[in-house]
Design brief:
- The chain is an all-alpha fold.
- The chain has one domain.
- The protein has 4 helices and no strands.
- The chain has helices at 3-12, 15-26, 40-60, 64-79.
- The radius of gyration is 12 Å and the shape is globular.
């Protein structure tokens, strides 16, 4: 998971573009947007993180840094 790639996705894409990218990765189709990552798994991680963060920002008025921190805390808890 690369924070700069997630930040770029959040800043430069709409929710619809991110959801379309998620579907394209899952269906092994070409992406309409640029998604950083070493492989499809990492790209999917970045897109899902961006979707979660964008939802948090829109639903709760959270700023990007706070939403990113909340997301990374969720990830840490899930792997510990």
């Amino acid at each position: 998971m690369k924070i700069p790639a997630i930040k770029k996705l959040v800043e430069n894409n709409t929710m619809e573009e991110l959801m379309a990218a998620e579907a394209a990765i899952v269906d092994e189709q070409p992406l309409a947007i640029e998604v950083g990552g070493d492989d499809e798994g990492e790209q999917l991680t970045h897109v899902l993180a961006a979707i979660w963060i964008l939802n948090e920002m829109n639903d709760n008025g959270t700023d990007f840094k706070t939403a990113l921190r909340q997301y990374t805390q969720k990830v840490r808890v899930s792997i510990s």
